[in-house]
Amino acid sequence: MKRILLVGAFLVVGAGLSACGDDDARDVLTVQVDGGTMSVSGDPSSGAVDVEINGDLEAGTEVDFTRVSDGTSAEDFVAGLSSILEGGPFADFLLTNAGVAAGGTSTPSVTLEPGSYFVWVETDNDGIVYTQLTVDGEGDGADLPDTDGAFTTKDYGFTVDAKAGDTYTIVNDGSQFHHVVMFDFGDLDPEIVKENLPAFFAAEEGDPPPEAFAEVDLANLDVGGSGVFGPGGSGTFEVTLEEGTTYAVVCFIQDRAGGPPHAFAHDMYDAFTVT
After folding, report:
1. What is the dotted CATH code of the domain comprising 23-135?
2. What is the pLDDT along the chain (275 residues), one digit of tens a residue?
3. CATH 2.60.40, the chain: domain bounds
């Protein structure tokens, strides 16, 4: 198994664009997951919403809001998800996505467009657990909260504008589905990190890392990242970035047509030092 395959597509997720939103202006959706069932309470309307997740999910488990074509059946939806989770193509009825993580210290926010949604999570014991949700277009277009920076994804790269902190914004400006996964490379030069990432990704599990990474703390390499966001999607996520530390930012989602992750097929990775 390649070392990097330990990171899933829809995964456990552990200054720039700062939409100036009033916390009181956003709707709150409460997702409850217990014993293989899911419910969502709240009165969602288009714009940014805060998402509270309760129940028996492990901290960091991703809960996704997937907008689908009207009339999409639950059977077709689950079959479409199974294709994605196996690295296959995205069905045409899967329009966009916004993912948030359970168990954070702050409440995540996502921007929802009007339409039909499946809210879902993949669990070890119960497989895909889901419910359905309709978002109306009567909202006041509430903004996302201020954060410590922004990660903008595109086809196929990143724009990073982030200071030290623990809450960040992701905006997907691409036509593909993307996410942000970050790795801590200590005090290494960002250019050295980028030069050696391909060899690191290609190494088999248990192989020694590239010589340039010999002093990297591999046990604590993965520091977390965002949920998966579809075209036009945006939201917030928690990850702690420290001043003076170099991080790699990577996307492991495949194209809508299926195939290898973007990091492999399109070199969708970068490195930066927090200042």
Report:
1. 2.60.40
2. 233 333 344 544 543 333 344 455 788 999 999 988 999 999 888 899 999 999 989 888 999 999 999 999 999 999 999 889 888 999 999 999 999 999 888 899 999 999 999 999 998 888 899 999 999 876 667 899 999 999 999 999 999 999 999 999 999 999 999 999 999 999 999 999 999 999 999 888 888 899 999 999 999 999 999 999 999 999 999 999 999 999 999 999 999 999 999 999 999 999 999 98
3. 23-135, 146-273
Architecture of domain 146-273: Sandwich (2.60)
Residues 84-87: contacts with CB under 8 Å, at least 24 apart? 84/9, 84/10, 84/254, 85/8, 85/9, 85/10, 85/122, 87/9, 87/254, 87/258, 87/259, 87/260
pTM for the complete prediction?
0.89
Amino acid at site 142:
A
| Beta-sheet pairing, 149-154 with 165-172 | parallel
Q: 243 is written with which tokens?
A: 């001043």
- Class of residue 187 by CB neighbours under 10 A (exposed 0-12, middle 13-18, buried 19+): exposed
Token pair, residue 150, equals 């922004």
Tokens standing for residue 100: 């948030």
